[in-house]
């Protein structure tokens, strides 16, 4: 009996599945269309856990380690939302471990939402237990996508940088998940500031664990001219939003057509959406 149980456990922990890549590839991804506006979304999905109360951090904490039958249902609902956007930044995804049923959640959401390009950044590899990741989904073909580890006392934070448009003057989208520590945020945003210093059209997206006013006045981002969402754009906690921790910050050259906190409580964070248009002069270069 022991051998039979041992075999069942081994099969569960080491399923015979084809290896999953970190990137979908670009073969079937449409070219960037600069004459169109771009619909952006950033969402901390909390690995598909539906949290709607502080007590759930205790009663549902086991879902951060073990699989749950409703996680796929939650992911399907998230996919319905993100299918309405062009470029999506995801934080707190699982890259394929026991807790997610060995599903790469970035890939799953891209395929379920019908979005042709996806990129997974693995930031903290806990083997079979957890694959902490960021994700980028895109309807357009980027010029290139790079990933970087962010500095910090505790490793496990990262940033994805995607460039679109022309090599000479690209649109640069940077998605990140910053640390909780203010000291770590200073170092991390110093690194990000260096990455965007030479570009005119920049979008920063992600869970930044801080309010926009402090980010833009008390960190290295004060050296930029990025435009934030209104102070009232509270995204956390999702069941009673009191803090603006999730952001889309853009260069003044990008016209903000619409921005909002999306009322879609599928995580402990609410999604943030923004519709931007490129400047007219930029479009004429294509």
From TrEMBL:
Keywords: Endonuclease, Exonuclease, Hydrolase, Nuclease. InterPro entries: Endo/exonu/phosph_ase_sf, Endo/exonuclease/phosphatase, GPI-anchor_lipid_remodeler. One of its GO terms (cellular component) is membrane. The lineage of its organism: Bacteria, Pseudomonadati, Pseudomonadota, Gammaproteobacteria, Pseudomonadales. Pfam families: Exo_endo_phos. One of its GO terms (molecular function) is endonuclease activity. This is Endonuclease/exonuclease/phosphatase family protein. It comes from the Bacteria. It comes from Marinobacter nitratireducens. GO terms for biological process: GPI anchor biosynthetic process. Residues 41-269 form the Endonuclease/exonuclease/phosphatase domain.
């Amino acid at each position: 009996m022991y051998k039979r149980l041992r075999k069942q456990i081994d099969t569960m922990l080491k399923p015979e599945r084809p290896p999953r890549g970190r990137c979908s590839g670009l073969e079937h991804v449409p070219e960037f269309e600069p004459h169109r506006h771009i619909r952006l979304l950033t969402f901390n999905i909390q690995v598909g856990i539906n949290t709607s109360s502080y007590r759930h951090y205790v009663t549902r904490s086991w879902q951060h380690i073990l699989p749950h039958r409703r996680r796929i249902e939650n992911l399907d609902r998230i996919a319905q939302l993100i299918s309405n956007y062009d470029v999506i930044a995801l934080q707190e995804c699982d890259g394929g471990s026991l807790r997610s049923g060995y599903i790469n959640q970035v890939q799953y959401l891209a395929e379920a939402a019908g979005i042709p390009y996806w990129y997974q950044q693995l930031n903290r590899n806990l083997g079979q237990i957890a694959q902490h990741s960021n994700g980028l989904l895109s309807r357009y073909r980027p010029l290139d996508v790079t990933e970087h580890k962010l500095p910090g006392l505790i490793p496990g934070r990262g940033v994805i940088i995607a460039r679109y448009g022309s090599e000479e003057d690209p649109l640069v989208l940077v998605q990140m998940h910053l640390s909780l520590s203010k000291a770590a945020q200073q170092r991390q945003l110093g690194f990000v500031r260096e990455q965007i210093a030479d570009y005119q059209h920049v979008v920063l997206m992600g869970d930044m664990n801080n309010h926009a006013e402090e980010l833009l006045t008390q960190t290295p981002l004060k050296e930029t001219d990025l435009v934030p969402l209104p102070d009232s754009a509270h995204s956390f906690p999702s069941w009673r939003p009191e803090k603006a921790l999730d952001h889309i910050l853009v260069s003044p050259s990008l016209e903000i057509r619409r921005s909002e906190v999306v009322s879609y409580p599928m995580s402990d964070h609410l999604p943030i959406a923004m519709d931007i248009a490129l400047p007219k002069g930029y479009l004429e270069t294509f």
